[in-house]
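For the sake of transparency, this paper describes our internal protein records without simplification. An entry from our holdings is shown next, in its original layout:
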Amino acid sequence: MTFRVVASPGEWEDLLNGFSDILHDIYFGFEWHALFSTGTNARPAAFFFEGKTGTKFFYPFLLRPLPESISDTPASVCESAYGYGGPLAENPDPDDLAQAEQAFCAWARANDVIAEFVRFHPLLDNHRWFRHEIAIEENRPTVTVPLDAPFELLCERFTPARRRNIRKADKAGMIIRQGEDFAGFWRLYEMTMNRRSAAGFYHFSPEHRRELERLVGNHGFLLEARLDGRLAAAAIFLQSAHFLHYHLGGSDTDLLSFSPNDRLMAEAVKLGRESGLEILHLGGGVTTAADDTLLRFKTGFSSSRRMFCIGKRIHDPVRHHQMLERWQGITGASPKLFLQYLILPE
């Protein structure tokens, strides 16, 4: 067996290109991890293992150093980039996979990686490749639209409410097109985040926005809904060889009554089908609640679900406990999230 940890874009992509294209989803690429290290001290890295029986194992993540006020000596945690990630396995052999996971954990301990948080990919069910001292939890359902029929038949699977809203948008003269009005998109996105009282993380920096726009230009598109020339809604979609992913969206509060989001999502279904893709992945709700309003909206386009799972693993229990105690001493609060000691009040 052999393994190595890579951080250079060229070597990363060369290794990833050795996997089947269905596994080479956008969330596993170097560009995606670089995007979510923008403006932070996080570093993209990927663990690659090749077993004796031909198993190939690839696991990308972000290495996040611990704040100096928390840790007296250099240490870090590893975390999947926002979205979906986890390990990839080609020609999986159980013994090889076990060795790969154990080799990764040994590397983590040897390199002062205290803990690990994994966002698994719901379309690949890749949580099954991790078994060693990890707690895997079902976080929330996500909505998938199988693109396995002509567009007209796919529309018949929408709920009556969604079809009614699409007809309303068409009757009003709503025009859907691929565009490049990112300034308009970000204006609507901020309007939507403020409407939902979104956490600070979702108010992305100008640098992050520029990098995302560049990535979308290479691996996706911006879909715009316009009414009488006015931008009513817009959404970013990310495209891979087999999947189309909804990423971010925003809408004009004053034009919501014309159902621009319903019409926009229907167009995404059509474009995904025309591109020969297998699945449009709409993702889940804002919260884990069963009655989450965003989840309810998405379920109007498909009854198909795939579970989003997360994984939590502690590589150094003693130091992990110390970090939690120090964080509590500094903040006077009890942590509600795994790895919350990465976040300190300003």
User: Anything to note?
Assistant: The CA atoms of residues 25 and 262 lie 26 Å apart. The chain has two domains: 2-133+316-342, 142-307. DSSP finds ten helices and 13 strands in the chain. The mean pLDDT is 95.
